[in-house]
Amino acid sequence: MGRGKVELKRIENPTSRQVTFSKRRNGLLKKAFELSILCDAEVALLIFSSTGKVYQFASHDMDRSIGKYRSAVGLPDSSNPQFRTMEFWRSEIEELKRSINTLETRLTHLSGEDILSLGMRDLKQLERQLKIGAERVRSRKRRIVSDHATLLKRRHKELHEENTRLQKRLNELRDGNLSSTIVGENVCSKFQQRILQDENLLKEPEKVSHYG
After folding, report:
1. Is residue 44 in a domain?
2. 81 partner at 20 to 30 Å CA-CA among 42, 89, 111, 142?
3. Please, which residues have CB within 8 angstroms of residue 42's CB and are 6 or more apart in sequence?
4. What does DSSP assign to residue 193?
């Protein structure tokens, strides 16, 4: 039986996609090598995976082949410093774009969206990451609750001590007022007795004069 015709579209299953990539990449590299040997051709092949990993084959010096290609199609000379600077920043931008896309995809998966294309291995890894994240959240939550409870206990102790101090001060003031009242009453009593004594002394000469 002959091989069935493969429909040319993106393979949704990540595992199948990786297997197909590895097989066809190796086949393509082999064909490039055979072409350079059989036909004495100068072949330069670059392959970038979806994760940004690079695979290459060059029958001659890769830089020389790229230079010849640029010259053939009219691209600027790569030895120009200005061009190298532009290429560097262009490469940096592309790398940042790939990193952003990877992070956005990961964030989407972590929120439980767009996971239909994930295989069992990817789903297990995602589940493990979610469990670790949930445990970290719970740990942080427990720490905050514990710190808040400790703060409330310390505040309660401070208020209790303040209340005891104020109660003691109030009792001292109350005892002081009572003592002042008693002293005042004694002073008044002694003053009244002194007045009575003086009045009696004043009356005694009158009595003496009357009897005389």
Report:
1. yes
2. 42
3. 36, 59, 60, 65, 68
4. H
Count CB neighbours of 76 within 10 A: 11
Calculate the alpha carbon distances from 40 to 32, 59, 60, 170 in Å: 11, 9, 11, 109
| Collapsed DSSP state (helix, strand, coil) of residue 109 | helix
* Bridge partners for 57 per DSSP: 45
Q: What is the dihedral of CA 192, 195, 196, 202, to 10 degrees?
A: 180
Does 210 fall in a domain? Answer: no
d(CA 172, CA 180): 12
CATH number at residue 59: 3.40.1810.10
- For residue 23, what are the domain limits? 12-75
Residue 146 counted as domain residue: no
Cα–Cα distance between 95 and 36 in angstroms, integer?
31
Instruction: Tally the domains of the chain.
Output: 1
In a domain, 115, yes or no: no
